[in-house]
Design a protein that fits this description.
Largest sheet: 4 strands, mixed
Organism: Methyloligella halotolerans
CATH topology of the largest domain: 2,3-Dihydroxybiphenyl 1,2-Dioxygenase, domain 1
Strand order of the largest sheet: 1-4-3-2
InterPro entries: Bleomycin-R, Glyas_Bleomycin-R_OHBP_Dase, Glyoxalase_8, VOC_core
CATH architecture of the largest domain: Roll
Strand content: 15-25%
Order of helices and strands: HHHEHEEEEHEEE
Keywords: Antibiotic resistance
Number of strands: 8
GO biological process, one term: response to antibiotic
Number of domains: 2
Helix content: 25-40%
Family: Belongs to the bleomycin resistance protein family.
């Protein structure tokens, strides 16, 4: 497929949704279909239909995002760690009713994590491996926060430069940037 479009890192529909949100913050309203057309042009194509056809792998199957579910036991500690220390945004919270456990989404720079207080969601002590860019800057940012429970270092590994953190519930997240070749 020499003439096919290179697969984007993000789902084009999600890109269009984010584009609309950014423009709305600037008081510029565009329809979802207009945003899809803009995304298609960003890939050098004439319209959305051409982009959608070229992205289809023929089987109709595409994985667009991974959201690890990490088990939490204390909402305040989870927010302190993920929002205040790691710098994630708290996107939303959900409860099935009063006095039910929290299920929440946090995100930062393209990484989305789900945090759950529900029994059976995730296993305490799980590990998540995250490929990223800017691991040195991220590690320096974390150290500068002087978080009393964690001072993550940098470690060279055969697969890249890694900084690792462990949340208050013993879940480990390894942030890795591949070494330049």
């Amino acid at each position: 497929m020499a003439d096919s479009v290179q697969r984007p890192l993000a789902d084009p529909k999600s890109m269009a949704k984010r584009l609309r949100a950014v423009l709305a913050e600037r008081n510029v309203e565009v329809s979802h279909s207009e945003a899809l057309e803009v995304v298609a042009r960003q890939f050098g194509l004439g319209d959305w239909n051409v982009l959608a056809a070229q992205l289809d792998d023929g089987a109709g199957i595409r994985f667009t995002e991974t959201c690890p579910v990490l088990r939490i036991f204390d909402e305040d500690k989870a927010k302190e760690f993920y929002v205040e220390f790691l710098g994630f945004n708290l996107d939303w919270e959900h409860r099935f009713g009063d006095n039910f456990p929290l299920y929440a989404q946090v995100s930062r720079a393209g990484l989305t994590l789900h945090l759950s207080g529900h029994h059976g969601d995730g296993t305490p002590g799980s590990g998540v491996f995250v490929r990223m860019q800017g691991v040195r800057q991220f590690q320096a940012e974390l150290i500068a926060k002087n978080y009393r429970h964690m001072k993550p270092g940098l470690e060279g590994a055969p697969w890249g430069l890694v900084t690792s953190v462990t949340d208050p519930f013993n879940n480990r997240i390894h942030f890795c940037e591949a070494e330049a070749e």
